[in-house]
Amino acid sequence: MLMNPLIEKCMLTSEQRNLILRGIQEGKNISKSLIASHPETTTKTYIPRMQYDFVNTYVEKIIQENPHTQMKIYKKKAGLHPYIVINDTSRNIFILVLKLPKNKYIFNPSRYRGDFASSNFDRLLAMGVTQEDLFGDIYYQYSLPVGVENQPFGIIVCYDGHSDIVFEGALRPEQDDWIYKEDITDFINLDSHNLVPINSYNLSDIEIPFKTSQEDDDIVIKLKNATSS
Asked: 125-143: buried (b, 16+ CB within 10 Å) or exposed (e) per residue?
């Protein structure tokens, strides 16, 4: 099935994919090396947390080392669970980097991921994607038009903790399915020196506020039990 070209305009650029994949790979390699030299423990809860922390750290590092991409990093929390948000300031796109096992199709619904997906349909409709393309015969009541630049779009880069597989996708606001989900694993093989930097579209560079979430993430080991939404 061919991707709608308007949806493609909201996807990660080749350079963005390459940088994020390199950050994920470097973080996983460092954590693997440290885990191998770590004293053995009974419960081994440090293993998934260490990988998650180093992936976030090296994704942040590589984004900060490439300011020409006009991406910024913000640190957020969902309950007691910390996470990072990458903001493509030129296109008003927000990117989460999260662990998703390769045998799991989609995340369980959560409040903070829902916040990042909440305006995805409105953004695409404002860009000209038709309701039929997005919903078929189902009617969707979208928000009042406020301009494409004021409708953020949320992307999730999902990596598997035990293999090199990485997907890029955007959730439907209901979190019951993906608007798109693509395997981007092979983009790590691109020569980043041959990639063209993204252009500035002179959109707002103001951080978009997010709702406060009161739940832990359901992907990594929770620090404290919480009720899922």
From this structure: bbeebeeeebeeeeeeeee
d(CA 157, CA 188): 13
Long-range contacts of 130-133 (CB under 8 A, 24+ apart): 133/4
User: Looking at the domain assignment, is residue 219 inside a domain?
Assistant: no
The total domain count for the chain is 1
Segment 149-173, tens digit of pLDDT:
678 999 999 999 999 999 999 999 9
Whether the full predicted model's pTM is greater than 0.90, yes or no, is no
Q: Please check whether residue 220 is in contact with residue 96, taking contact to mean a CB–CB distance below 8 angstroms.
A: no
Terminal-to-terminal C-alpha distance of the chain: 33
Cβ-in-10-Å burial (0-12, 13-18, 19+) of 188 comes to middle
Q: Is residue 32 part of a domain?
A: yes
